Amino acid sequence: MKRTNSVALTSSDISPLWDMYQSETIIKWGIVYFLQHVEDNAIQQLLKETLTLVEKNLSHMEDIFQKESFQIPFGFTEEDVHLQAPRLFSDILYLEYIYNMTFFMMSMYSFAFSVADHKEISDYYAINLKAAIKLNKQAKELEKEKGIYIRSPRIPRQEKVAFVRDQNYLAGWFGERRPLLGMEITNLVFHSKRNALGHAVITGFSQVAQSKEVRRFFEKGRDISGKHLEVFTSILHEDFLSDGALLMTSEVTDIKIAPFSDRLMITFVANLIASSIGQYGFSISTSPRHDLSLQYSRLMAEVGKYANEGLKILIRHGWLEQPPMAANRNDLAK
After folding, report:
1. Per UniProt, what is one Pfam family of this protein (predicted)?
2. Does residue 334 lie within any of the structural domains?
């Protein structure tokens, strides 16, 4: 990437780049492992296209770090993957992972693009956002072809304009509860799918984690994601709507040999949690019904506490790479 001027990159340029480098090294080695076992030709092709995109992104990011004389992050390497390990997940779960991963990529690149100060960096994010959108569309269409894509429930066609006249529009815990809004249904279905995937992945991780401490951490996460899925499903059922997603634990094999390091698996789960917290917050802003807002707030607090436990494990083992930060002026003044 050629620099057109000497303007130094800011925290808004570098920090999202640093975070994405960490995440995409996890994605890279995950896909490299998946490709050792995938059998479906179409899913294999999608995995290869995703890997090509991620490797290209990592190369570009390393180029930017070098041009800025900024230390390239350590991230995750071939030491964090055991390619000879037996298959842990099915092809269907590989596909569901790629589809959900594109949401994470689109969210990250969209945010990074909006806050970037340097034109060349924002252009880089814009290109990657476009590529992530393309990948998302491919994965969604492939899920439809495979018959595993769960569509959101249908709602009645609105034939005339109407205005809210009743306070029960906001009610939830007390009084007559109105039916779910279309956007509220959309949020519940989205979170159901994310937690179904998370439950399956963490179930697999709990089987293969090498440390007892890490295994217990994953067992707790498995139970939390399963409970969250039940919460979202029960809310949909109150309005006689279909499930937003189904448990995917049948897509996890019974192997006990770890394909990934404990450090990689915990960091991957931490990324899932961070994404969930952000999405729960968005759902609060688009769900006027009070009971839904309180449910999301409660679930956010639960996963936030769980995320903190994961960070403590990473720090205790010396696994947490320090992100870019401001200078400590108090120490410098001593």
Report:
1. DUF3231
2. no
In a domain, 158, yes or no: no
Tens of each residue's pLDDT in the chain, 334 residues: 444 446 688 999 999 999 999 999 999 999 999 999 999 999 999 999 999 999 999 999 999 999 989 999 999 999 999 999 999 999 999 999 999 999 989 999 999 999 999 998 999 999 999 999 999 999 999 999 999 998 988 888 888 887 877 767 776 555 678 899 999 999 999 999 999 999 999 999 999 999 999 999 999 999 999 999 999 999 999 999 999 898 899 999 999 999 999 999 999 999 889 889 999 999 999 999 989 999 999 999 999 999 999 999 999 999 999 998 888 777 777 7
Segments forming the whole domain that contains residue 214: 177-316
Contact in structure between 66 and 14 (CB atoms under 8 Å): no
Residue 147: CA count within 13 A, CB half-sphere: 0
Report yes or no: 21 and 60 within 8 Å, Cβ to Cβ.
no
Q: Which residue has the tokens 């306070």?
A: 167
**206 in the same domain as 109:** no
One-letter amino acid identity for 96?
E
CATH of the domain at 295: 1.20.1260.10
Q: CA 97, 99, 103, 105: dihedral to nearest 10 degrees?
A: 70
Is 333 within a domain?
no
For 275, the enclosing helix (H) or strand (E) is helix 262-285
**CB-CB contact of 78 with 177 (8 Å):** no
Number of domains in the chain: 2
Cα–Cα distance for residue pair 81/310, rounded to 1 Å: 20
**Are residue 128 and residue 56 in the same domain, yes or no?**
yes
Residue 120 lies in a domain: yes
- CA dist., res. 187 & res. 276, Å (int): 12
